[in-house]
Amino acid sequence: MPETEIYEMNLKEPICRICNAQNGQKVRAEHVYGGRQDQNFWHCGHCDAVYLSPPPTEEEEAVFYYREFENFMDKRSGGDRDWSGARRHIQTNQDQVRRRMPFLEQYLTKGNRLLEIGCSSGFMLQAFKEKGVHCTGIEPSGVFSDYLKESGDDVFTSLEAVEDHRVEPFDLIVSFFVLEHIRDPFDFIGRSLSLLKDGGSFIAEVPCVNDPLTHIYHIPAFERFYWSVAHHYYYNPKSLAFILDKMGVRYKMVPEQRYDLSNHMVWMSEGKPGGQGRFDDVFTRELIAQYKRDLKAKWLCDTIFLYIHK
Ligand SMILES: [Zn+2]
Prior knowledge:
By secondary structure, the protein is α/β, with parallel strands linked by helices. Helix content is about 40%, strand content about 20%. It is built from 13 helices and eleven strands. The chain has a seven-stranded mixed beta sheet with strand order 6-5-4-7-8-11-10, with helices on both faces. Strand 5, helix 6 and strand 6 form a beta-alpha-beta unit. The longest helix has 19 residues. The protein binds zinc ion. The site of zinc ion has 8 residues, from loops.
């Protein structure tokens, strides 16, 4: 009998946190990075969602985001990003700005009002402002929200605070790597859409659980790293579509592959994060780009761009 099956016999099958199915739940990941021994990620055979069970309490979560999140991310980033302070964080994330812009550019109209939920150090807001867009941010992290307020940015610490403030509706709401951290995605998407003008768009970048490092290659070191206690869910197009169809919204999804061939080879050879671009002098740009294109064409990629139109 495989190890996972023996392990699962000792666990009570949870109810799916997305579709409430009471059967067809299987352990997807035994090890939760930063989590407890009794926490696992489960896969639902009905809606295809992967979810953390049992989830942390709301109190545990609030403390985590206020005090620990930057340190936690610093440990995970493998040296690619600097989480030691807002300025360094902005500098070391400029590659993210360049990568994301092609997915966003057509929605950035001068004079429009934009809300970024989870704006971190504000490195995307800075780029949006350069395009003449009026920006508001939401950032629960104490370090970053204090920095943004001091720099004169329009920033709130929660979605509730924006709602309470009765701000004018936005033309565009964006969030990058936030949705997977949210306990109730139906509530979060619904409330975000209610802050949007008719004709406005909500754009979210989300990790895709079809990431080849776990979905195809099964690298033990990656398995111990990928499944983070900071995430309530890991989505793929099917599980996101389940949520969005249930909500009756108009949407599309576009595949994206953030990590390159070098990063994947370093995971395979050294079992470590980082490694992005390491073999750029060995491979041609065409090969590096084609590798990503192949993964995206089959939706075996690490990221989803989700567009919801109101
Ligand atoms: Zn389900």
